[in-house]
Amino acid sequence: MLADLIAGKFAEHLPLYRIQERYRRAGIDFSLSTFCDWVAHVAGMTAPIVEVMKKIVLSSRKVHTDDTAITVLDLGVEPVHSRQGYMWVYISEFGDVVFDYTNSHQRDGPASFLREYRGYLQADAFSGYDGIYAGGLIIEVACWAHARRKFYETLGHYPTEAKRILELIGRLYAVESRAKKLKVSEDRLLAWRQRFSRRRLEQLRRYLDQLSPQVLPKSLLGKAITYTLKNWKALNRYTEAAYLSIDNNLSERQVKQMVIGRKNWMFAGSENGARNAAILFSLVVSCKLAGVDPFAYLRDILPRLDSHPANRIHELIPREWQKRFAPQTSPATPAVA
Is the distance from CB of 314 to CB of 323 less than 8 angstroms? Predict the structure, then answer.
């Protein structure tokens, strides 16, 4: 029942009152407060697994990150008010997904989470990251999808110039697509990028430098060019190592699952509720990224946690669980109605 509750809310994005209605149709009546207590209980039980995932993220050669807003009820004020918090996602090179809740969009959140991290950080050009990069221990990798999107938005006003720039960016993606299609190994991918991508980057840079003086700086196209040139070094960084990505779409796809859930359940009931949601989203989204059925995973690990050795808790992160404990055919989530 606990596995079904968590999978329903965090994998299928059902608000708790809808899950309550589903159980009532089966003749089972639980209060919403009971469901909330159970969600908090499961989050507490599984928090050590997410802590292990966090350590793996912080030991990775690269980390993808992104964030999204979340509405949180402020229960300490009468009448009850809501305020805006943020969920930050961090993804290891192995596909471990960790969500972290903060009550503001300041750089303090990622700075605290990444305090011990050393490596490449792939993100959008959020100014809050600038202080994190300043020490040189965390290296910025920018996202070509973000840059491309800015030029795409100028198509209606500057069709000739925008189409040319989008075509040049498309050639960068064509290199990645071709390498993937040919199954180019990581050992060869770096040489592949240096041979094909760098000359395309140089061609794009020449065109942007040529175009920049001809465009008003505050126009849509001028802003897009400024953004790209300002972040040029970070946008080129994916050609430094084969394990880096041309864009940050991986983290955007994982954040999207939080966004879908937010549209259904609307808000977190408290800051503790938001932190519990971060723990459970970490597990559920990691399951999905690893191709694991979240319900099957939760149904198996919840009874295991009482007796599983603490020094082997890493065996219960979703991708490791899949290797060791996953049934050959994962059972489907039961329909309660």
Answer: no
